[in-house]
DNA sequence: GTTAGCACTCACCAATATCGACTGCTAATT
DNA sequence: AATTAGCAGTCGATATTGGTGAGTGCTAAC
């Protein structure tokens, strides 16, 4: 029985690999030919019957080969797959990324692009989340007599902006003074220490400016409250449609789900890293209808500051090369952590 | 002949409208039935023969109806189409946009989303370009002992960031002082006045900080030089794949072209507004292979400051409802201009 | 537990036939 | 000169058919 069982796993592995490679249901004969299982097709058929009973593979129609089910992929990912190390060229690409990094937003964009290229799939990345940010600088810029822009810089380098409508027109200079006051009084204050003392701020400026200060102060509070809403950047959507990745007509809904960032954010949030530093959701495990035929591979990256780690990952057909994808995602996460946390 | 000619245009218009509506080649019989041209199919056939000779329509195969060529659409857009006014609901959606606008980046994102929804197509928007910006504030934030982030705020509210690697470790405070020096000395200087006087800046700080000041100063110069590279935000890519919009296998390359922002940027840049405040490129007019089956409708929006206006627009199949699309794009451009320039 | 043999199922393909939507042309009509 | 009716001809789209082969499940022997 033990001997038997290990061969069954071999068979499952072979089926997954062949199916990923050929995109066609794989039959018993082809299996013994391509892999050197030293038994006859009939034996394999018995194993396949068992695997099917266990819900690991299924036959699309009576006289066709088998394809893995979500459960089959799951078992494959958890117990059988081998992680493929990166090639030299891939490592090199990551290094170039580190060298050319300047604008931090651009780093994220390039990272996600590279990940999409390496995996030939859609890549996504969450904006980093900082928990221990302090207020660093506040500036108020006039856009029109009645409209101003409040700019908030945090110690992490994160910048937030918000447009406000003023109750009464204010001169550029007045706004600047208000910004300075705010900067002085709130400097080094933790971004999570709420509410900010709007009243004392108001009384610190001359009466003519007090209503304006109130408006701006409230804007700052609300900026700190919401933080910058969690966002996702993605790249490689074209890979969904690529000749190879035949998700067929399903790609419309998939694109929708991706554009509707909430879906992806929730999913990423739910995913827990396993001991390998990766998390994988396959098919229905995504518990989202339009992602039924896709799998998500994600990993956390550290953003220098401690705090809830943000994630990056790829979205592709369940029928994907898990080994390669998983290693690319993990490597990318590690590399990005390094770029962000030190020089 | 004049009478004849106007009917020919009617026929062209009818063909375009029917084809847009049904997505099927349209024949002479169907034409007289659906539109009340008071002549017989045979007459229409003669007209169609003429239109075909003029290169305005074509037959996909011998015994099928006709479809408009790019030239046909062009004539339609220039001379025949009627702009469809917006519905009440659409106007309302735009107003809501204005009311909830706070973060200026979010305004762009919501605008492009709304435009995609209104037109059921892919919408794109260029970041606004400001020409007369002045330097407003500079801040330097420490990320790690050897790495810092330079933040530059312009009078327009635009914020640029760049990571720099320091030649020698610097304390948080030192970096802050460097930022203050830069802010003081460069305040109100035009962003286009280059190069900035790095030498005098260097000599304005104590010797120990001079190399660091040099690095930061150069970073500022390069930030001003490049400006924030022109960028595009897009939304509604899922509409490309929607059941309705049958671009078929062409969507892969289209998505690629869209992701490769350069293509779109160059195209938008080339497009000149006509007297209606719109510009349209149809099929090959885009002079880009993967956009052969698509049309681009764009309009300029003003961003408060004068200067090269940025554009917004939509990308869809050549077989699109030009009337609706054009009015939506134009309305959106006007509305956005209003939001951005005043309150 | 493995294997050979065999009957059976069913997607896939190619060939063939049918249908019907159009066109273009000619000749008659206004 | 423009319009129209009538008609032959073209050709894509669709359905029908039969053949082929990959693949299965089962049974009986090893």
Give a short summary of the structure.
The first copy, chain A, is an alpha+beta fold. Chain A contains 13 helices and ten strands. In chain A, a hairpin with a 4-residue loop joins strand 5 (147-154) and strand 6.
Oligomer: homodimer
How many helical elements of chain A? 13
Rounded average pLDDT of chain A: 89
Strand content of chain A: 15-25%
Looking across the biggest beta sheet of chain A, what order are the strands in?
Answer: 7-3-10-9-8
Element order of chain A: H for helix, E for strand: HHHEEHHHEEEEHHHEHHHEEEH
Q: Based on DSSP secondary structure assignment, what is the total number of beta strands of chain A?
A: 10
Report on the biggest sheet of chain A: 5 strands, antiparallel
CA radius of gyration of chain A: 27 Å
Largest two-chain interface: A-B, 48 and 48 residues
Considering DSSP H and I runs of 4 or more, what fraction of the residues of chain A is helical? 40-55%
Q: What is the overall shape of chain A?
A: elongated
How does the helix and strand content of chain A classify structurally?
alpha+beta
Alpha carbon gap, first and last residue of chain A: 55 Å
Poorly predicted tracts of residues of chain A: none
């Amino acid at each position: 029985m033990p001997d038997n069982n290990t061969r069954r796993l071999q068979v499952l592995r072979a089926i997954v690999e062949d199916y990923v490679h050929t995109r066609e249901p794989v039959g018993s004969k082809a299996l013994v030919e391509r892999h050197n299982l030293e038994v006859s097709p009939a034996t394999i058929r018995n194993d396949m019957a068992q695997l099917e009973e266990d819900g690991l593979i299924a036959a699309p129609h009576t006289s066709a080969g088998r394809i893995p089910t979500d459960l089959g992929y799951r078992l494959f990912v958890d117990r059988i797959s081998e992680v493929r190390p990166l090639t030299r060229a891939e490592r090199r690409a990551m290094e170039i990324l580190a060298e050319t990094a300047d604008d931090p937003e651009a780093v994220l964009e390039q990272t996600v692009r590279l990940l999409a290229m390496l995996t030939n799939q859609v890549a996504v990345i969450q904006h980093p989340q900082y928990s221990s940010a302090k207020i660093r600088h506040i500036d108020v810029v006039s856009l029109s007599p009645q409209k101003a822009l409040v700019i908030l810089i945090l110690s992490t380098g994160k910048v937030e902006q918000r447009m406000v409508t003023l109750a009464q027109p204010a001169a550029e200079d007045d706004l600047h003074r208000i910004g300075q006051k705010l900067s002085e009084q709130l400097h080094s204050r933790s971004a999570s220490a709420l509410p900010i003392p709007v009243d004392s701020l108001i009384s610190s400026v001359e009466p003519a400016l007090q209503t304006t200060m109130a408006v701006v102060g409230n804007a700052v509070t609300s900026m700190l409250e919401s933080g910058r809403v969690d966002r996702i950047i993605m790249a490689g959507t074209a890979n969904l449609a690529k000749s190879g990745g035949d998700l067929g007509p399903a790609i419309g809904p998939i694109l929708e789900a991706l554009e509707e960032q909430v879906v992806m954010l929730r999913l990423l949030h739910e995913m827990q890293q396993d001991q390998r530093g990766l998390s994988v959701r396959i098919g229905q495990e995504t518990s989202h209808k339009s992602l039924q035929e896709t799998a998500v591979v994600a990993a956390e990256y550290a953003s220098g500051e401690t705090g809830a780690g943000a994630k990056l990952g790829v979205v592709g057909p369940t029928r994907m090369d898990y080994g390669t994808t998983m290693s690319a995602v993990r490597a990318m996460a590690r590399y990005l952590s390094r770029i962000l946390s030190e020089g």
